[in-house]
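Throughout this review, each integer encodes one residue's backbone shape. One record appears below.

===
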Amino acid sequence: MPDLDRLDTAQTAALMAVAHAYKERFAALEKAAREELAGRGGKGGTAVVDGHTVGRWSPVSGTADRLAVTDPVRFGAWLDAHGFETVSAPLPPANVAGRLDQIVEDAGGELPDGVIVRAGHAPTVRVSVDPDAMDTLLGDSDTREVARLLPGLSDTEGTPPDPFQAMGL
């Protein structure tokens, strides 16, 4: 990390802005890579950079939208008002697999009061990174790349090349 105490306010603000831009770009790159790996399927594996294993990834299945009772009192009142057989506690029987779907279907597609649709999610991947391996691999390359853009921070002579540069990142 650079010594921020030696920077003036303008340099610190510039550093913050550039770091934020890098964060946004890398977030977009990570999102695209996750989507690509999820689309390829597979069982997962290791993440290797410049010959170093830096982490592992594994697929996470997607889920479908599902109905959930969020207010059992309103749901029970809705069941009574629509002629459904009610029980003293509508929450547990209503949450039995497929029961809510059947109630909505029987009601002509109307979503009962006290019930919401919980959005599912697309397949993705889980990533775990070995921080020690990343520290060994990157050293201070993250700050060197930012330092090249900012006057007063550049101190890059005699440093090894950035391994991500070879990857086009």
Observations:
- The mean pLDDT is 79.
- The helical segments are 9-40, 72-81, 91-94, 99-106, 131-138, 141-147, 163-166.
- The chain has seven helices and five strands.
- The radius of gyration is 26 Å.
